Amino acid sequence: MPRYAHIIGWGKSVPPNILTNADLAKKVDTTDEWIRERTGIQQRHIASSKETTALLALHAARDAVEVADVNPQDIDLVIVATATPEYPFPATACLVQNALGAERAGAFDLEAGCSGFVYALATATALIRSEMYNTVLVVGAETLSRILDWSDRATCVLFGDGAGAVLLRGSDQPGGVLSTILGSDGSGGELLMVPGGGSKHPAGPDTVLSKQHFVKMNGREVYRFATRVMAQASRQAVDKAGWQLEQIDLFLPHQANVRIIDSAAKSLKIPPDKVFVNLERYGNTSAASIPIALCEALDAGKIKTGNNLVMVGFGAGLTWASCAIKWTAAQPGAPAPQRAAASRLRYIWSGIKSFGFQLSRHIDAAVSKTLDVIERKPSDE
């Protein structure tokens, strides 16, 4: 009997600090009109120094777990799609797994640029279909403001910070993620990249002074690429699911540029009322943009049980990804006070246990070091 991967929980988290176009116009040579006309963006959320990718991911993940009413210990795997991880290693997913109290879960990060969330969703779906895992948490989280050159108006006006998450669970009931399409064209890698900090250009005074740790983008070429692959990948996902384009109830594209979204929708002949757009409030949040849009569409009542959804994204790599989903989850009610209290206690207890494990390691290391010193001490004879 085939196994299906259903989305049973969802959540998002964005920093409270908002940077408007008018605010940006005070820093760089741009205007609100220029940004809106070319991108559709009006504002974006920017993380404070205390708000990191892992923290945003954790808040979104907790919301998804609460919506699904699942014990974190039942989660088999955590995947975090991000281009702005907490550290080069350990994986941001490991930090989320620990803070969430998902003690049984494996964890890894996935990097496919702005296509990352759908790439991670496809990976989770395949693992559930194979029956390797049953419950998988997928998070898209970014703090892109950390890698922007705020003097470069071609890039700094585009991006924002945030996180979105979904929890998937296997079932014999048909529905959920029905098809996925993944693609790449590495010949276009130089069109959108952060040159510094890797093995080719390790971090050092030269890479810092030459601003190689910031996003570099050939906007014209990326735009041409995106307008081509968004519609193409969407069609492929719809065909693979066995649908017709007219059967799409809601189109959830990567929120990068309203002109790219309009071009894809027009090519697919999807009417505006079936296209979800929220980039005017968030800008491009890369791997977080599609799950944030999903959460907002649900909050707005635009998704009902039985609806057909198409998600599609494009990004650095160059990469693209799409999926077709038969939505099966019902809108959750407000959690009972007892359940909310139990969840808070569970997270507090997870934090205490994690601290206990870390303290135990430090004590073991100190004792081991002391014993080594004693063993090396010369004899009095």
Can you summarize this structure?
By secondary structure, the chain is α/β, with parallel strands linked by helices. The protein has twelve helices and 13 strands.
Report on this model:
The chain has 381 residues and is α/β, with parallel strands linked by helices. It folds into 2 domains: 4-326, Peroxisomal Thiolase, Chain A, domain 1, CATH 3.40.47; 337-381. It has helices at residues 21-25, 32-39, 53-68, 92-100, 116-129, 153-156, 205-209, 219-241, 258-268, 279-282, 289-299, 337-376; strands spanning 4-13, 18-20, 43-45, 77-81, 106-110, 135-143, 161-171, 176-184, 192-193, 216-217, 250-253, 308-315, 319-326. A 5-stranded mixed beta sheet has the order 1-7-6-4-5, sandwiched between helices. Helix 8 runs parallel beside helix 9. The model has no long low-confidence stretch (mean pLDDT 94).
Helix/strand order, N-terminal first:
EEHHEHEHEHEHEEEHEHEHHHEEH
Low-confidence stretches: none
Structural Rg: 22 Å
Give the % helix.
Answer: 25-40%
Strand content: 15-25%
Mean pLDDT over the full residue set: 94
Largest sheet: 5 strands, mixed
At CATH level 2, the architecture of the largest domain is 3-Layer(aba) Sandwich
Q: Under CATH, the topology of the largest domain is which? A: Peroxisomal Thiolase, Chain A, domain 1
**How many domains make up the 3D coordinates?**
2
